[in-house]
């Protein structure tokens, strides 16, 4: 935030020795923050890329693929849920459409696997236009209702239309690399999912910094005011919904190519949609890496439950409880909560000096040499510094 | 062309089904009117009531209708607690979205607990009068369906009288219409809102008992109910009780009639088609009032 640091650096050049210590401290802290962020991103990327070599057996590796798939879908969800605040419970269905689209294009139209994936994503994006048109014309409540209806209607259609989709018997998708052994297959798809995740995160980051992203966030904060200020709210919502649908379909299609077997009950499950929401909320929807962190926690938790409790309904109970707790007590997510906790450990952001007035006067006398002439400048400098500090606290 | 008797049978069944839909949609409309909350857990509570009716019949040996003596007050209390303890805690700005997630979480929780306690086995109440039916002009109507419709009709009528004739009903309607103004004239809107939620959940208790009489129940059944119900309240215009009742009757009838040429599965899609058509062409719903404009 350059505007906050400018007034603190300007007086510092006129009298470097008496520069308010807080101002210099903030700039240093910002640089430190940036370094920490870059280091964290590099570490995270290294951890993700190193995982396949560290995984002790193919099962752990396949669990890693599942978690990355969740991370891709949850990040795609947060294009809509994070920027505009419109919560969709139906993204599981968009992923399912991507999966079935890819599978049908491979089996019925004979397209190569990854061409089919791209075409399916485009088709789902095109389908998202009328869906978004119906869902986004009105405010929040109707959007949620449409998103749930989408899952239920697609489940009905894909179960009943057995001649095309195989119905409840499922649909087998030919593997794109038929001569790879299973562990190698997992490894290749692990990197494919990681690449897709990087792409989604990059798109999220670019929107976040753009004017378009600003408009979307304005919708989240107050849609009426955003509209009054000239933001084309409906067009923005529709565009970001279509982008989100395309990424979700890519995630779902890649899953179909990896897993090789589709069943309507799992592809069009409202639970999948709610997992995505839970992951994004848990991690923090306003945060680039929030959905990824949430996917790590929830994805690993889901795998654990599958291993420990098998087919019981306990995973539903755990999901429900966790979702309720997050909504009630941590609606901003884990990352912001940790951030504010760390914020408490930092040097206090206030204007209280840790020196007495007498010591301060002595310091200034020693530093300036000619106290009478320099005094007014010092006063201006220190008040400017404090004001900058307080704007920063508000920001 | 189907025979006249089959058509008549479908119309009667449609009416009976529409009555049940109307009662349940009334509950959803109440929640939405009071707090702008889309209550996903409504149908989960419906199934919970159905399970309690089944349990009281098969384990305690009482008539399922008698289970309402317990479930209706219990659900009323649950509704009051749900509103006062959970929903009132959410931030006002994001209330609509977060309440959806919270009620979704409750629905999943109920489904999971039902599956854990009663297992996923399909259950059905075997009643002495379960297979009894009578004929009118060649159409056969099961007695239990008629009882279910009667329950729904009595509950809806009670709700109507409560809303129109009692002081509490006036206070509740005032709270729905304009909360701040209601508070200004001395209505304790917080308490009234809590009781309103209780009433809404009580409709789920009655509906669940009616449902248990002639339907096979299983824990994940509630997803088959929440979709049509939400479609109904949108088509009727969010927040309008008469609107949702009209939409429930019309759509219930259409579903029943479409079952003849299309079969049960495809007939269900009528609800979603109606939902999308309403939102695309008339987002405020067909019977909607002032409230529906903005949601």
Summarize this entry quickly.
The complex is a heterodimer of chains A (395) and B (295). With 395 residues, chain A is mostly helical.
Task: Supply database-style keywords.
heterodimer; A: 395 residues; mainly alpha; ABC transporter involved in vitamin B12 uptake, BtuC; 2 domains; two-stranded antiparallel sheet; disordered N terminus; B: 295 residues; two-stranded antiparallel ribbon; 11 helices; 3% strand; globular; BCAA_transport_permease (chain B); transmembrane helix (chain B); ABC_transp_permease (chain B); cell membrane (chain B); transmembrane (chain B)
Assign the CATH architecture of the largest domain in chain A. Orthogonal Bundle
Coarse morphology of chain A: globular
Largest sheet of chain B: 2 strands, antiparallel
Helix content of chain A: over 70%
Return the structural class of chain A: mainly alpha
Overall average residue pLDDT of chain A: 81
Whole-number count of domains of chain A: 2
The backbone outline of chain B, from C-alpha atoms, is: globular
Beta-strand percentage range of chain A: under 5%
Q: Largest interface: which pair?
A: A-B, 45 and 51 residues
Largest sheet of chain A: 2 strands, antiparallel
Mean pLDDT across residues of chain B: 85
């Amino acid at each position: 935030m350059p505007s906050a640091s400018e007034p603190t650096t300007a007086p510092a050049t006129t009298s470097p020795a008496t520069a308010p210590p807080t101002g210099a401290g903030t700039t240093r802290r910002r640089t430190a923050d940036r370094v920490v962020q870059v280091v964290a991103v590099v570490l995270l990327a290294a951890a993700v890329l190193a995982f396949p070599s560290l995984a002790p057996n193919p099962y752990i590796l396949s669990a890693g693929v599942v978690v990355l798939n969740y991370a891709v879908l949850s990040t795609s969800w947060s294009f809509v849920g994070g920027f505009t605040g419109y919560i969709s419970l139906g993204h599981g269905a968009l992923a399912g459409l991507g999966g079935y689209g890819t599978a049908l294009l491979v089996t019925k139209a004979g397209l190569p696997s990854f061409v089919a994936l791209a075409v399916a994503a485009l088709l789902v994006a095109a389908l998202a236009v009328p869906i978004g048109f119906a869902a986004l014309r009105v405010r929040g409540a109707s959007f949620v209702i449409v998103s749930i209806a989408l899952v239920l209607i697609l489940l009905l259609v894909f179960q009943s239309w057995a001649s095309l989709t195989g119905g409840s018997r499922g649909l087998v998708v030919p593997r794109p690399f038929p001569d790879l052994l299973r562990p190698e297959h997992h490894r290749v798809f692990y990197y494919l999912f990681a690449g897709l995740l990087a792409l989604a995160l990059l798109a999220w980051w670019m929107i976040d910094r753009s004017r378009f992203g600003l408009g979307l966030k304005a919708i989240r904060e107050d849609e009426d005011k955003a509209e009054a200020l000239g933001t084309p709210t409906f067009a923005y919502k529709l565009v970001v919904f279509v982008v989100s649908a395309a990424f979700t379909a890519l995630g779902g299609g890649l899953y179909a190519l990896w897993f090789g077997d589709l069943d309507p009950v799992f592809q069009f499950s409202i639970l999948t949609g709610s997992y995505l929401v839970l992951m994004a909320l848990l991690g923090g929807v306003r945060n680039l890496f929030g959905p990824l962190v949430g996917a790590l926690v929830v994805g690993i938790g889901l795998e654990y439950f599958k291993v420990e409790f098998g087919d019981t309904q306990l995973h539903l109970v755990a999901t429900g409880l966790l979702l309720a707790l997050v909504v009630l007590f941590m609606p901003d997510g884990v990352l912001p909560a940790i951030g504010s906790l760390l914020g408490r450990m930092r040097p206090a952001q206030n204007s209280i000096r840790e020196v007495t007035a007498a010591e301060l006067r002595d310091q200034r006398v020693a530093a300036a040499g000619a106290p009478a002439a320099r005094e007014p400048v010092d006063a201006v400098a220190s008040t400017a510094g404090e004001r900058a500090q307080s704007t920063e606290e508000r920001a | 062309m189907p025979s006249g008797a089959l058509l008549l049978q479908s119309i009667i069944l449609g009416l009976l089904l529409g009555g049940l839909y109307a009662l349940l949609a009334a509950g959803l409309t109440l929640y939405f009117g009071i707090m702008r909350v889309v209550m996903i857990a409504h149908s989960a509570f419906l199934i919970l009531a159905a399970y309690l009716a089944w349990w009281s019949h098969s384990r305690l040996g009482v008539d399922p209708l008698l289970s309402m003596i317990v479930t209706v007050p219990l659900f009323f209390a649950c509704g009051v607690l749900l509103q006062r303890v959970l929903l009132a805690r959410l931030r006002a700005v994001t209330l609509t979205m977060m309440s959806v997630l919270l009620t979704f979480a409750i629905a999943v929780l109920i489904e999971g607990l039902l599956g854990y306690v009663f297992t996923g086995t399909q259950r059905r109440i075997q009643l002495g009068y379960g297979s009894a039916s009578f004929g009118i002009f060649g159409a056969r109507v099961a007695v239990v369906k008629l009882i279910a419709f009667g329950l729904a009709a009595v509950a809806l009528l009670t709700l109507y009288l409560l809303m129109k004739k009692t002081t509490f009903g006036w206070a509740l309607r005032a709270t729905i219409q304009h909360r701040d103004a209601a508070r200004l004239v001395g209505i304790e809107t917080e308490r009234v809102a809590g009781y309103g939620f209780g009433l809404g959940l009580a409709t789920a208790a009655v509906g669940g008992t009616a449902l248990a009489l002639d339907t096979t129940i299983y824990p994940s059944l509630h997803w088959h109910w929440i979709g049509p119900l939400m479609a109904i309240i949108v088509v009727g215009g969010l927040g309008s009780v008469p609107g949702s009742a009209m939409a429930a009757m019309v759509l219930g009838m259409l579903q029943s009639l479409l079952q003849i040429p299309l079969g049960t599965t495809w007939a269900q899609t009528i609800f979603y088609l109606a939902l999308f058509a309403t939102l695309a062409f008339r987002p405020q719903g067909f019977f909607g009032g002032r409230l529906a404009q903005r949601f």
